Amino acid sequence: MDRIAVIGAGSWGTAVAALAARQHAVRLWARREELAKTINATSENPDYLPGHRLPSGVEATTDLREAVEGASIVAIAVPSHGFAEVLTDIEVENQVPIVSLTKGIEADTLRRMTEVVVYLRPDHDPDRIGVLTGPNLATEVMAGSPTAAVVAMKNPEVASQVQATFMGPTFRVYTNDDVVGCELAGSLKNVMAIAAGMSTGLGFGDNTRAALITRALAELTRLGVALGGAPATFSGLAGMGDLIATCTSPHSRNHRVGLGLAAGKSLDEITGEMNMVAEGVKTTRAVLELADRVGVEMPIAAQVGNVLYAGHHPRQAVLSLMTRASKAEV
Question: Could you give the residue numbers annotated as active site?
Answer without folding.
Answer: 189
